[in-house]
Amino acid sequence: MLTVISIIVGFAITKLLGISMKQINVLVEKLSNYDFTVEIDNEGKNEFAEMNSSFKISICERRAFPCHRALWEILHKF
């Protein structure tokens, strides 16, 4: 009986982690394409909410400097 409960709990945890990681992967993919228009939900008290909060701060800073891609391309030509 304990084994069945452990398997169910393990499956639930794996599913929740998978969903959170998928959201982070989608966010990082958009950011890697210089898409800083994404909206981030940083509610919660787990590690993913902490990561989202950091991403949100970083994105707000990038939005304040709209020519970031052009500058990056100029600086990385050499």
Give structural notes.
The chain has 78 residues and is mainly α. It has one domain. The protein contains three helices and no strands. The termini are far apart. The mean pLDDT is 79.
Lay out the secondary structure.
Elements: H1 2-32, H2 47-63, H3 68-75
Feature tags:
mainly alpha; Putative methyl-accepting chemotaxis sensory transducer; elongated; single chain; 78 residues
The structural domain count equals 1
Measure the end-to-end span.
64 Å
The portion of residues assigned to helices is over 70%
Strand content: under 5%
What ranges have pLDDT less than 50 throughout 5 or more consecutive residues? none
Helix tally?
A: 3
Structural class: mainly alpha
Rough outline: elongated
How many β-strands, per DSSP? 0
Rg, please? 18 Å
Order of secondary-structure elements: HHH
Biggest pleated-sheet summary: none
User: Mean pLDDT, as a whole number?
Assistant: 79
Write a brief caption for the model.
Helix content is 72%, strand content 0%. It is mostly helical and 78 residues long.
